[in-house]
Amino acid sequence: MVPVHDLGVAALAILGVAFLIGWSSARLNQATLLWGIAHLSLAGATFTGYRYHLQPESQWLGVVATLLTGFFLASLHGGTNFLRGRIIGPGTLIGRSLGAAFLIAVVGIGGDKKAASILVLGLMMLVYGASAYLCLRMRYRLLAAAFSLKTAAFFLYFLEPSTIGTPFQNPDILAVGWVSSVLLGLVLVDAAIAQTRQRLSNVIKHLPDALVARRLDGKILFCNDRFAQLAGRASPDELEGQQVPLLTREQEEAEAMFRKVNAMVQSGPLDEPMRLERSITPARGEPFPAEIIFSSYMDLGYPVILGLIRDLSERKRGEEERLHQANTDQLTGLPNRRFLEQQLDAVLWIAHRQHTQCAVLLIDLDHFKKVNDTLGHAFGDEILRDVAQVLQAQLKPGDLLARLSGDEFALVIAGLPSLMSILEVEARALALLQLIRRQFCSADGMEYQIEATIGVAFSGREGLKASVLLQHAEVAMYESKARGRGSWCFFESDMDERLAESLRLESALRQAVPRGELRLHYQPIYSCSTGRMTKAEALVRWESPQLGWVPPGRFIPAAEESSLILEVGQWILEEAIRQAAQWRTQSGLAPVVSINVSVRQFAQPGFESQVFALLERYGVPPSGIELELTETLLASDQEDLPALLHRLHDAGVGLSLDDFGTGYSSLSYLSRFSLNTVKIDRSFVMGLQESSRNHSLVRAIISMAHSLHLNVVAEGVETWRQYEILKAEGCDYLQGYLLGRPMAAEQLRAHPQVLAGEESNIPDAVI
């Protein structure tokens, strides 16, 4: 027969192991851990206490039994406190264990220690039961009852302490002890399960998403507060056992959705959650977008559908906000290029289906970079916002306006009748140009006039993409700029070819300087008073291996439109100064080399230092060169331009105003800037013989220049009669095909250096 104490120890150990197994699956439940330790400790205390009873001389058995008993009490109380929301650390647990053991050991001094110890155990169990009863939940009251029964068992042991652990132990007392131990263990197990269930219930209850579990017949097993709120109920209890309310506006769609889910679940649990997006209509409140997630599980052999309704309102608003930001120009509030291209594809598709036309007007503000550079980006932004408002005010139903980039806007006009499209678009383009053409005043009082250039492209053929149509409008815009800014132009098919040619030209030009494809030719300039060749204008020539000979009128404007003019201008400046130095040292020829300077080159920081550095490197005096300036350069808003020209002039560098008389403000420049020479444009010289008016203008220019102590060069001299008239009017220098065409440096050195003054001695007659 198995000893009674062995059975008791085994039962306690089994309970302890069961608790630890439960804790291993839910490690956050400290109560199960502590109760498991408590029962294992009690099993150990029972075993060692019985051995100590049989072997009183083994004092260490009593000590171990007492310590294990103290650990049992502390762990049991710690698990119970966890149910009340109190967490006990390892240090506190050990301290309480030692305190309980000490109390059990010394309370019986002077009497029956066994009886006293049992009394202490009983009183502690009574206290634990009272503390458990303080919790209002029923399972905790059952725990208090189990503690009370255990207390009674200890009190019965107290009545007959001598029989504890002996064959004479009262069977009634033994039965009460067994029942109390088993009941306590079972109640503790139930409390642990209930705590886990409560935790899960709290999670479900406070879940921000609506959660519902239902059977295939539609009846709800459970749901959370959020779902009850959507269904218009006060609590989830009102919905348990009821049919699932349909929360979507479209009832038929909702029922079809449920039937589909039911059919899928009947064949077995869903392998993957089913996700749907629907509009949810709550019992009270406005509909909202939601994601519905269906999953399933088996409950007692029956399939259960679990539905989660997640409110997507915030996410949708965030997505809409991000989409708005991605599709909107932040400065003007207009749609950006990305949005325009998306919408334009749809507009083109509709236009094709409805047999209508669609037009794109690409609006580019002229010289806007100058506004940012001179007046600041803040003022430039203000202008862009103002222009955007002006354009918005002219929109008609169906129009779409967008800002493409810095100073570019695009207007899409849809629904145009095929025959009337051109006239209507032309009228609107002219109106927009007039509206944009206005003056803006900066904070410091500086006024600036804004103008625009417009390129227009029609949808035309079927299958045209938005990107292609925008490209056509851009080509037309550049064509309009080439013809003269402040105007508009329709796209024509041959413009693509010209654009492609321009791109090929620009690409080839980028390689021209590194590959040494550029050359300088020099056109002689003779002095009327001495008849000597005193100057020579440096003119760039380009012969490309791919394009052949390219005239300056083609590649110089292309270079001006890009940054290539800086590289080309740098090469021209250095090569001209180098050649001037070579002439001086090798042949004794020392004409002043006249060098054309672009606006962008002159405005480049450090240009002045660059000129003086090259002069010093090649040993050419400042008076050995002359910089030819255009009216465009003098009309620029460079604040330091007058000072820069003054420094160059004082250093001895010659300064010449090219093409004098063709601009609007040429006369004002003569008094504002430090100049040496003016060059009469060839258009006045060509009509010199036939037009008395031209003759009078040339005479007036020469006289005015001399009064300002300026020299005069007449360009385009091609006949002997022109030569005679200009010389008779007192012109200082002559230049033209009559006297010599542009030629290589070696040819210029062999060219006649002196004019005899007779027709037969004109150099060109000899060549």
Which SSEs are present, and which pair or pack?
Elements (H helix, E strand, L loop, with lengths): L3 H22 L4 H25 L4 H25 L6 H17 L6 H21 L4 H22 L11 H35 L4 E5 L5 E4 L1 H6 L20 H16 L7 E7 L7 E12 L2 E10 L1 H15 L9 H18 L2 E9 L2 H8 L1 H16 L7 E6 L2 E9 L4 H16 L1 E4 L5 E4 L1 E7 L7 H18 L4 E3 L2 H20 L5 E10 L5 E12 L3 E3 L1 H10 L2 H23 L5 E5 L2 H5 L3 H12 L6 E5 L1 H4 L6 H11 L2 E7 L5 H7 L4 E4 L1 H5 L5 H16 L3 E4 L5 H9 L4 E2 L10 H6 L12 H4 L1
Parallel strand pairs: 11-12, 14-16, 16-17, 17-18, 18-19, 19-20, 20-21
Antiparallel strand pairs: 1-2, 1-5, 3-4, 4-5, 6-8, 6-11, 7-8, 9-10, 13-14, 13-21, 14-15
3D structure, described in words:
- The strands form 4 sheets. Strands 13-14-16-17-18-19-20-21 form an 8-stranded mixed barrel, surrounded by 5 helices. A 5-stranded antiparallel β-sheet has the order 2-1-5-4-3. Strands 7-8-6-11-12 form a 5-stranded mixed β-sheet, sandwiched between helices.
- Helix 6 packs antiparallel against helix 7 (171-205) and helix 17 (552-561) crosses helix 18.
- It starts with a helix and ends with a helix.
- The chain is elongated and about 155 Å long.
- Helix content is 54%, strand content 17%.
- It is built from 28 helices and 21 strands.
- The chain has 4 domains: 4-203, Up-down Bundle (Rhopdopsin 7-helix transmembrane proteins); 209-315, Beta-Lactamase; 328-491, Reverse transcriptase/Diguanylate cyclase domain (Alpha-Beta Plaits), CATH 3.30.70; 505-766, EAL domain (TIM Barrel, Alpha-Beta Barrel), CATH 3.20.20.450.
